[in-house]
Amino acid sequence: MNILLISQCDKRALTETRRILDQFAERRGDRTWQTPITQDGLDTLRRLLRKTARKNTAVACHWIRGLDHTELLWLVGDASRFNAQGAVPTNTTTRNVLRRQDENDWRTGEDIHLLTALAALLHDLGKASLAFQMRLAGLLTERNQYRHEWVSLRLFEAFVGEDDDATWLARLVTPTAQDDAHWVGRLRRDGLDVALPTPFAALKHAPLAQAIGWLVVTHHRLPVLPRNADGSPGIFQAALLHKVIESIDAGWNEPLRTETGGPIEPYWTFPHGLPITTDLWRKRAARVAQGLLKRLALPEVA
Fold first, then answer.
1. What is d(CA 160, CA 168) in angstroms, rounded to the nearest whole number?
2. How confident is the model over 119-140, as pLDDT tens digits?
3. CA Rg, the chain, in Å?
4. 99 backbone φψ class: left, alpha, beta (φ>0; ψ -120 to 50)
5. Which of 160, 163, 162, 159 is nearest to 277 (CA)?
6. Which ranges of 34-176 would DSSP assign to H, the alpha helix?
7. CATH number among 3.30.70.120, 3.40.50.720, 3.30.70.240, 3.30.70.260, domain 2-92
8. Can you give the pLDDT at residue 302?
9. CA gap 258, 58 in Å, rounded
């Protein structure tokens, strides 16, 4: 094969690479060499260059494949002195010429990151229930009465309560003993308590909490329209599109089987407490909540 070698070395590295390259190829300039060479010879050349490379070493090897085509084979040393094709820049500048950040349309990227981060901290809280722990131990084999993400949503709803988004986020940053008690103390238990509003209807005063709740409950699956009383699939009607999110109850997350699914209490009992009291969970939740508070304080952009 016919190769072209370019050296962008400095100082003592330039002297050393010239000594090696002169043994394999003819100079075509102060920093350029060209020669036909076998693959074994090329491998030997590269090995010698890598063995003697310094921090100022920078050598590119191009394969001349035709009259108008070359292919970069490899780089030895400081690859930043070449571009991806092995070319050398005509000039460099520290000025922001391209201004790529001006074309960044991810204006909501930070919002997405914060929302998903908080949802990630919340979506598995329901696994602390007695029912889920029994399932892990093989003591519960029948189908769930309530999936763990639905329980997590109810726990989050209990913490938010009647507060607006700024208030419950502030409480998440610096929780008190009373705040810790709210997770279970104000918990609305499907199947046990009566006349319960759906979680999304209860959170309609806090749209940010509604959005996080949606991420929590849809972590594994999207809500599915419950079956009819006779067991036939439910038919989605156009009228349901009006405030559909506020109509979603536990039946949309898991078909309810209270008659054959065993007792309901274990799904709403947490014998070992919740991870919300651990230092690591508190620290991460506080950091995300602080970020969301800062985003809430920004002026709205149309």
1. 6
2. 999 999 999 999 999 999 999 8
3. 32
4. left
5. 159
6. 39-51, 109-122, 130-136, 148-160, 165-173
7. 3.30.70.240
8. 41
9. 72
* Residue range(s) occupied by CATH 3.30.70.240 in the chain: 2-92
Structure tokens belonging to residue 59: 């050598």
Residue type for 112, please? Answer: I
Cα distance between residue 21 and residue 33, in whole Å: 7
Q: Other CB atoms closer than 10 Å to residue 237's CB: what's the count?
A: 8
Torsions phi, psi for 194 (to 5 deg): -110, 160
Does residue 173 register a pLDDT over 90? Answer: yes
Q: What percent of the chain has pLDDT over 70?
A: 95
Q: Which long-range contacts (CB under 8 A, 24 or more apart) does 107-111 make?
A: 107/301, 110/291, 110/295, 111/295
Of the candidate ranges 187-191, 220-224, 252-256, 277-281, the one whose mean pLDDT is the lowest? 252-256
Least confident stretch, 52-56, 66-70, 151-155, 157-161: 66-70
